[in-house]
Write a structure and sequence with these properties.
Layout lengths: L2 H13 L5 H15 L9 H10 L4 E3 L3 E4 L2 E3 L10 E3 H10 L9 E6 L4 E6 L6
Parallel strand pairs: 2-6
Antiparallel strand pairs: 1-4, 2-3, 5-6
Protein backbone atom coordinates (compact mmCIF):
# COMPACT_ATOMS: atom_id res chain seq x y z
CA UNK A 1 0.00 0.00 0.00
CA UNK A 2 1.10 3.48 -0.68
CA UNK A 3 1.45 6.15 1.95
CA UNK A 4 -1.64 8.02 0.75
CA UNK A 5 -3.77 4.90 0.82
CA UNK A 6 -2.65 4.17 4.38
CA UNK A 7 -3.54 7.71 5.46
CA UNK A 8 -7.01 7.36 3.93
CA UNK A 9 -7.57 4.00 5.57
CA UNK A 10 -6.36 5.26 8.98
CA UNK A 11 -8.66 8.29 8.82
CA UNK A 12 -11.63 6.09 7.86
CA UNK A 13 -10.92 3.78 10.79
CA UNK A 14 -10.36 6.62 13.29
CA UNK A 15 -13.37 8.74 12.53
CA UNK A 16 -15.72 6.04 11.36
CA UNK A 17 -16.87 8.17 8.44
CA UNK A 18 -15.66 8.21 4.89
CA UNK A 19 -13.67 11.06 3.40
CA UNK A 20 -15.09 13.16 0.59
CA UNK A 21 -13.27 13.66 -2.73
CA UNK A 22 -11.81 17.07 -1.78
CA UNK A 23 -10.01 15.53 1.18
CA UNK A 24 -8.57 12.74 -0.96
CA UNK A 25 -7.31 15.09 -3.69
CA UNK A 26 -5.89 17.39 -1.02
CA UNK A 27 -3.79 14.50 0.30
CA UNK A 28 -2.67 13.55 -3.21
CA UNK A 29 -1.52 17.05 -4.12
CA UNK A 30 0.51 17.36 -0.92
CA UNK A 31 2.32 14.06 -1.52
CA UNK A 32 3.16 14.77 -5.17
CA UNK A 33 4.90 18.01 -4.26
CA UNK A 34 7.33 16.02 -2.14
CA UNK A 35 8.13 13.70 -5.06
CA UNK A 36 9.23 16.44 -7.46
CA UNK A 37 12.97 16.70 -7.92
CA UNK A 38 14.93 19.69 -9.11
CA UNK A 39 16.96 18.91 -12.21
CA UNK A 40 19.98 21.06 -12.99
CA UNK A 41 19.40 23.32 -15.97
CA UNK A 42 21.46 22.31 -19.02
CA UNK A 43 24.18 24.75 -20.04
CA UNK A 44 23.12 26.65 -23.16
CA UNK A 45 25.14 26.13 -26.33
CA UNK A 46 25.75 29.84 -26.77
CA UNK A 47 27.73 29.88 -23.54
CA UNK A 48 29.93 26.99 -24.70
CA UNK A 49 30.58 28.70 -28.04
CA UNK A 50 31.50 31.93 -26.25
CA UNK A 51 34.08 30.02 -24.19
CA UNK A 52 35.61 28.58 -27.37
CA UNK A 53 35.68 31.99 -29.02
CA UNK A 54 37.42 33.46 -25.97
CA UNK A 55 40.40 31.15 -26.38
CA UNK A 56 43.27 32.80 -28.24
CA UNK A 57 44.31 31.09 -31.46
CA UNK A 58 47.90 29.83 -31.50
CA UNK A 59 50.35 31.71 -33.72
CA UNK A 60 53.40 30.17 -35.35
CA UNK A 61 56.54 32.08 -36.40
CA UNK A 62 57.83 31.21 -39.87
CA UNK A 63 60.21 29.49 -40.79
CA UNK A 64 58.68 26.17 -39.78
CA UNK A 65 57.98 22.82 -41.41
CA UNK A 66 54.37 21.83 -42.07
CA UNK A 67 53.32 18.22 -41.50
CA UNK A 68 49.89 17.35 -42.86
CA UNK A 69 48.31 14.34 -44.48
CA UNK A 70 51.09 11.98 -43.30
CA UNK A 71 53.80 13.93 -45.10
CA UNK A 72 56.01 16.98 -44.79
CA UNK A 73 54.63 19.54 -47.21
CA UNK A 74 56.75 21.65 -49.53
CA UNK A 75 55.82 25.21 -48.52
CA UNK A 76 58.66 27.12 -50.15
CA UNK A 77 57.40 30.50 -51.27
CA UNK A 78 54.08 30.26 -49.44
CA UNK A 79 55.05 32.20 -46.28
CA UNK A 80 57.23 35.21 -45.41
CA UNK A 81 60.21 34.84 -43.04
CA UNK A 82 59.80 36.30 -39.56
CA UNK A 83 56.01 36.70 -39.80
CA UNK A 84 53.54 35.05 -37.39
CA UNK A 85 50.67 32.98 -38.80
CA UNK A 86 47.59 31.68 -37.02
CA UNK A 87 45.92 28.40 -37.89
CA UNK A 88 43.25 30.10 -39.97
CA UNK A 89 45.94 32.07 -41.86
CA UNK A 90 47.83 28.86 -42.66
CA UNK A 91 44.60 27.21 -43.83
CA UNK A 92 43.75 30.10 -46.18
CA UNK A 93 47.26 30.17 -47.68
CA UNK A 94 47.34 26.41 -48.21
CA UNK A 95 43.90 26.44 -49.88
CA UNK A 96 45.09 29.23 -52.16
CA UNK A 97 47.89 26.88 -53.26
CA UNK A 98 45.48 23.98 -54.00
CA UNK A 99 46.26 21.87 -50.92
CA UNK A 100 42.80 20.33 -50.45
CA UNK A 101 43.72 18.56 -47.20
CA UNK A 102 42.87 21.89 -45.58
CA UNK A 103 39.24 21.95 -46.76
CA UNK A 104 38.04 20.21 -43.58
CA UNK A 105 38.21 21.63 -40.07
CA UNK A 106 41.88 21.59 -39.03
CA UNK A 107 43.58 21.76 -35.63
CA UNK A 108 47.21 22.80 -35.40
CA UNK A 109 49.87 21.64 -32.96
CA UNK A 110 53.53 22.57 -32.65
CA UNK A 111 56.50 20.26 -32.09
CA UNK A 112 59.30 22.51 -30.77
CA UNK A 113 62.15 19.99 -31.03
CA UNK A 114 61.76 19.70 -34.84
CA UNK A 115 60.22 23.17 -35.44
CA UNK A 116 57.22 21.53 -37.12
CA UNK A 117 53.60 22.64 -37.25
CA UNK A 118 51.33 19.60 -37.38
CA UNK A 119 47.94 19.98 -39.09
CA UNK A 120 45.34 17.43 -37.98
CA UNK A 121 41.90 17.02 -39.50
CA UNK A 122 39.19 17.03 -36.84
CA UNK A 123 36.88 14.03 -37.02
CA UNK A 124 33.14 14.48 -36.64
CA UNK A 125 31.88 12.60 -33.58
CA UNK A 126 28.48 11.01 -33.95
CA UNK A 127 26.02 10.80 -31.10
Amino acid sequence: MTEVQEQIQNQENDSGEQLNMDDIFGMLSDSTEDLKTDKPAPQPKAKKQAEKAGQAEKKFMFPFQLYAGSRLMDITGYFEDGKEYSGSDITKIMLAHDEYFFTSKIEFDYMADTNTVVAMSVQHKKG
